[in-house]
């Protein structure tokens, strides 16, 4: 068989990657998130079925608090705009701006998670109390896990941005991917908040 | 094979591109990002699990030779029954058909050097061995007992640790499937060689595209259901416990929303293989290229809305029965389109009865039987009578064994020369085919009658009136067990010492045959340029190719336009 697949007179591939094709990572992420959203879709559907079969929702003794989650929602939804400012900054080759807005986003994400944990600790019921609390903790917990992953992605971007030239106006796919993921987490929360909180209280 | 390492002298910065000219044997046992290595890793790994699952099946059939549970402990029978199904679906057919053939062939068929995300691809493969290990480890805790469907309440009250391991195993292969599908969708949509029109995309690629979309949409829902089950078993929740406000039928919906499409995950790639195997061995263009391509997408879409036909006896309301009966019958239409497309391709062709073609023809006949059984089962009034009987077992084994496994065999005989650079032995292939064909009918045909007579499935003992037909099934199962031997010997022996394969032994026209056998690490030195359709047989393409093994063919094709250029013009 013919041994070499590389033409020795020229670089086998242009830098930086082992692939000569266009960067398709954003496509990959979007495809993955389309799939991921159906996992939440499964949880939402399960929740609605269980709620539909219940005589009383939420069961007696399970109060849903609204003030803190609403503040939390405001923080998370605003952070989606903040993170976009970071993306805008790097498109103008402004790494300092990118870092500023991404740090702010990470802070807002952390506030959300801390608020969530605080809510868990102060609610009068736990995971196993009743069918509503089963759903409540599973769904918010699962979403919280996604917020945490998003936070890690943002911290990853911040870590890499310390190296000058790692991100620029021409090269910032990683920044974009963290932003897309963050928006995804945000959108899931809006559905979750509507289902679990608003439609339960009203 | 050459073992020389190409050092990257001209471009010191692109260290990621360094690779040897050809992989050594041990590279196949390591983390490797080459789609061809990954494809073979999938095929070999899944074949090992096929043997394990097959031994379990033979143990089950040995038990069922007599009406009483006298060979296996009934709990062990349940564990074998559960894990036989789980292994055959999640660790054999799905990874072999999608992971194995998909990874090996997609980049080669579309003229790409690799998949869009090679590293992700390797990660997706390496989730499979731990998943298999978890499943086998569950036997240390008694093995999960609740069938591959894991319906609560059974799955909540039997062998909790084993059931937990089972869930983790399925979540792992599910993750692998999702990551693999992301890769396929992006690769097929974005990485075709520019000279290839959409109408020149091989039908296998259309099939894998449809499969991947289906896997992306359905697998996460199963994951959601399994997470809920995991919490019910281990963390005291009550999603599926009716006494605490849960709902058992909810699990069935979540499960079948994935697991019915999973049926198509297991057959759509096989349909793709059929469309690749039949034309070159019948020397005719495929009949109805567009119809076959679009019918894959139609099956993908309609297949998402038929899942309740598994639940006609689960207290399903009448309107649902009607809706899902109708939608189920609709799926038969695009499937029939494909069947007739292949029959019409065979019609008047110069059929070469190679081992690959034998299995493709076997599939055609078996799948029609299995498919007709599916139409009867999809009809609620009939299903109510045969639900959970051996009629169902007979039906889905015709589809999954007579369909999927025959297709995988056809694919292996067809692409083995490309993958290994060696030809397989045709005599052993024919023996393999005859044994498999007889064994399949002998094992699964009597099950239809057993089911109509009312023999329940999934139970280690049965009424003595069923004993005669069960003898037939067990004998057939052992014929099937023996049938693997000629294949196994053939594959191992041919891989080591088979005749050297030419680049294009079947004189086929898809792109994978334009490179060497086996292909070099990045598939081509210079990417091919597509000058004709993938199935333009009898039009003069490929005639003068030096590796044409069949002189008769060229005489038939000689009336076609002059074939001065071989399969493709190389740029």
Describe the structure.
The complex is a heterodimer of chains A (202) and B (571). Chain A has five helices and no strands. Chain A has 202 residues and is mostly helical. Chain A has one domain: Cytochrome c oxidase, subunit III, four-helix bundle (Four Helix Bundle (Hemerythrin (Met), subunit A)), CATH 1.20.120.80. In chain A, helix 1 runs parallel beside helix 5 (173-201) and helix 3 (95-122) packs antiparallel against helix 4 (131-161). The radius of gyration of chain A is 22 Å and the shape is elongated. The relative contact order of chain A is 0.15. By secondary structure, chain B is mostly helical. Chain B has one domain (34-570): Cytochrome c oxidase-like, subunit I domain (Cytochrome C Oxidase, Chain A). Helix content of chain B is 63%, strand content 1%. Chain B has helices spanning 35-63, 74-110, 118-126, 128-137, 154-157, 160-190, 203-234, 248-282, 289-302, 318-346, 355-378, 380-386, 390-420, 426-452, 467-497, 551-557; strands spanning 528-529, 569-570. Chain B has a two-stranded antiparallel sheet. In chain B, helix 1 runs antiparallel to helix 15 and helix 7 runs antiparallel to helix 8. The longest helix of chain B has 37 residues, at 74-110. Chain B is globular and about 65 Å long. Chains A and B meet through helix 1 and helix 4 of A and helix 6, helix 7 and helix 8 of B.
